[in-house]
Design brief:
743 residues, alpha+beta, 7-stranded mixed sheet, 5-stranded mixed sheet, 17 helices, globular, binds dioxothiomolybdenum(VI) ion
Length: 743
């Protein structure tokens, strides 16, 4: 079972709000952390899928005779010679979610390039690769559609409406009406998706790259047609996921099915190329924003009409209207959307799904409005700061957008900004400054945890969530340390296994907010059990004392009135003949819960970007970035800061580099490798100044913590393109910014 424990002593007695490095760090840098593709089992075989080389049509025939004769090849499976899979029943809550709902090989229709149509199994990965390449496939190809320009005949579906936005827009004295495009983006975590499936009779253990092991189990047992309790999913360490590993993909089902058929453990590691095809992406979006305002900058009408591409069979929607209805005060508003189908793999959530492309468009439109009004963009936003969520009519649990902008402006030196295009120079370079506001939902999902306090003075906390790499092991250790007084280095954290008490998905920036109540309740329950043992029972050291008058600290149970005295907790347990004091805790979801009916729950922020532009050499750089985030109380500011920094680096990629393109001739993602799909590197990352406002949000949990995994990406690209406009006078509305746009 997975465990991560701090090796050094914490630097200070202060537990929360300190700067504890990730406790799993030493395991990772020393190579002892076992990732899914590191799992090696006796007799394990390797599976390599055969990928469709058309984007639309039918498989006419598959000839595996040559492949089967190759050395080490054990089998080639395809539709007809592999036991078929069931579909997963419609999802309920956060259980049973799968984006690509059609199981592998269900029919002979090809709907996207790279769809798995067969799988080769061999003794080594090289042999399996060779066999997959030797499978001969005949297709009946149809015309495919991967056209990036989106259009639809049918009316859009209204998502949110108030007032009369059309009339208000028509009569508004100042208007912006523009369309913004964000391209297909691919998650590209460095760790490839992988599955190792091992059956024991009709029970299967799946080692997975999963951001949601409980859901993975809930989908896989249904698709494999075995009892729920027969599927165990393990995911101890993740080399990130960015949403691409939230829900199961076809390779996992295929690996499990093949392992069952062949009677041996099977490893399937998705290739980088396939990660552009068959494990989701952020779909292309096309958003028209119409904003009408008075000459005082007060918004009178806000309309967002957007389309996103999706696959042929599935209905993934990029929820670009996520923040539009509540971000600004405006009496007349409409958000409407539609899906446009293309021959592409099914899209999925990617870091800040919906809000990130949505805020690129809305914050760009707000910047354009500020320019039309000849008004400072911070002042424009300040004038439209809402008093409550005007769509739900609920108060915000905690909203400090104006303070984020003020603090950011001060840190950035915004007061020195000359708004005239191209007017600011430094060292022979033209400087551009831009800003954007941002938000991301703050929610909590169901979580359970258990805590044991052992005789040796250690504690173990268990919950079936997983650490995507953000510091979940560490946060759990901190919460238990805070609740028990047991030092961090004596706390063992066990995650990433469906045999543990059900924990939350690593998504939505929910984990921290979700696990805190469960883990701290469990820890307090374990302490209470220990104090009860200390006061009752034949050999109890504090017989007759009320448990409430005792405390646990420094490994000793003592009277609150006399903390210097006391009995080692090992004695308390030994005298009671109990191995460990145990406690369980749980916290209910805010989805549909009491809190979400009383409050509008979000994190907020303000992003400030500086770019330098050198027209002589066509060189554009992001040279400075200030991010101010209002996300409640930071439980562990160091990894929290890392999250914002990483998201800003990703935002630079979104603004300037990232884009997956489909080849019109073949329908294939054409830049499906890390050389041609450009992402930010260290050389592209400037100094990033991150500030957290400290306004604990006690609506979400007793510690007032929200999550920070996604918000750093929200608004970032809009701040950068605003800075690009300020430097160059060119407004880029279709990401990424290309040098040729600026010439
Ligand atoms: Mo996140 S896109 O919810 O992993």
């Amino acid at each position: 079972m997975s465990r991560a424990r701090a090796s050094g002593a914490p630097e200070a007695p202060q537990v929360l709000g300190g700067k504890l490095p990730r406790i799993d760090g030493p395991l990772k840098v020393s190579g002892r952390a076992v990732y899914t593709s590191d799992v090696s089992l006796a007799g394990m075989l390797y599976a390599v899928p055969v990928r469709s080389t058309i984007a639309s049509g039918r498989v006419v025939s598959i000839d595996a005779s040559a492949a089967r004769k190759l050395p080490g090849v054990r089998a080639v499976y395809y539709r007809g010679n592999l036991k078929s899979f069931f579909r997963s029943a419609p999802a309920q809550g956060f259980s049973g979610i799968i984006e690509e709902k059609r199981p592998p090989f269900e029919d002979d229709v090809v709907r996207y390039y790279g769809q798995y149509i067969a799988v080769a199994v061999a003794q080594t990965i090289e042999q399996a690769r060779g066999a997959a390449a030797a499978v001969r496939v005949r297709y009946a190809a149809d015309a495919h559609n991967v056209e990036p320009h989106l259009a639809t005949e049918r009316p859009l579906d209204t998502e949110s409406q108030r007032g009369d936005p059309d009339t208000a827009f028509q009569s508004a004295p100042v208007k912006v009406d523009q369309t913004y495009v964000t391209p297909t983006e691919v998650h590209n975590p460095i760790e490839l998706h992988a599955t190792v499936a091992a059956w024991d009779g009709d029970r299967v253990t799946l080692y997975e790259t999963s951001q949601a092991i409980m859901n993975h189990r809930d989908v896989l047992y249904q698709m494999l047609g075995v009892p729920k309790e027969n599927v165990r999913v393990v995911s101890h360490f993740l080399g990130s996921g960015f949403g691409g590993k939230l829900w199961p993909w076809t390779h996992s089902i295929l690996a499990a099915g093949v392992a069952r058929e062949i009677g041996a453990p099977v490893k399937l590691v998705v290739t980088r190329q396939s990660m552009f095809e068959a494990v989701g992406h952020r779909p292309l979006t096309q958003q028209r924003f119409r904003i009408g305002a008075g000459r005082d900058g007060k918004l009178v009408s806000l309309q967002q009409d957007y389309l996103n591409q999706t696959s042929i069979l599935d209905d993934y929607k990029e929820d670009c209207g996520e923040s539009t209805p509540f971000m600004y005060s405006v009496p007349n508003l409409r958000v409407a959307s539609a899906l446009v189908r293309r021959n592409i793999g099914t899209p999925t959530a990617m870091r800040g799904p919906g809000a990130v492309p949505g805020l690129f468009a809305m914050e760009s439109a707000m910047d354009e409005l500020a320019i039309a009004l000849n008004m400072d963009p911070i002042e424009l936003r300040r004038r439209n700061e809402p008093q409550l969520d005007e769509s739900s009519k609920l108060p915000f649990s905690s909203r400090h957008v104006v303070e984020c902008m003020q603090v950011g402006a001060e840190k950035f030196g915004w007061a020195r900004r000359d708004p005239r295009v191209g007017s600011m120079k430094r060292d022979g370079l033209t400087i551009g400054w831009g800003m954007a506001a941002c938000s991301w939902g703050a929610m909590r999902s169901d979580a359970q945890a258990s805590v044991e306090i052992d005789r040796d003075g250690t504690a173990t906390v268990r919950t079936a969530t997983q650490d995507i790499g953000t510091g979940t092991y560490t946060v759990l250790a901190l919460v238990v340390a805070e609740a028990t007084g047991i030092p961090i280095e004596k706390i063992d954290v066990r995650l990433g296994d469906t045999t543990l008490p059900p924990g939350p998905i690593s998504g939505g920036s929910w984990v921290t907010a979700s696990v805190i109540p469960a883990a701290s309740h469990a820890a307090r329950a374990a302490v209470r059990a220990l104090l009860t043992m200390a006061t009752s029972g034949q050999n109890a050291p504090f017989k007759g004392v009320k448990p409430d008058d005792l405390q646990l600290g420094n490994g000793r149970v003592s009277r609150k009135s006399d903390p210097s005295s006391g009995v080692p907790l090992s004695d308390v347990l030994a005298r009671a003949n109990v191995r460990a004091a145990v406690g369980d805790g749980q916290s209910p979801s805010t989805f549909g819960g009491e809190e979400s009916q009383k409050y509008s729950l979000h994190s907020f922020g303000a992003q400030f970007a500086e770019v330098t532009w050198q027209p002589e050499t066509a060189r554009l750089r992001v040279s400075r970035f200030v991010s101010v985030i209002d996300a409640g109380r930071m439980i562990n500011p160091k990894p929290a800061r890392n999250q914002i920094e990483g998201a800003v680096v990703m935002g630079i990629g979104m603004a300037l580099f990232e884009e997956a393109r489909y080849d019109k001739r073949y329908g294939a993602p054409i830049n499906s490798n890390l050389a041609d799909y450009i992402m930010s590197t260290n050389a592209d990352a400037p100094a990033i100044d991150v500030t957290f406002l400290d306004h604990p949000d006690k609506v979400l949990n007793e510690l007032g913590a929200r999550g920070v995994g996604e918000i750093g990406l929200a608004g970032t690209a809009a701040a950068i393109t605003a800075a690009v406009y300020h430097a160059t006078g060119v407004r880029v509305r279709e990401l990424p910014v290309r040098i040729e746009d600026l010439l």
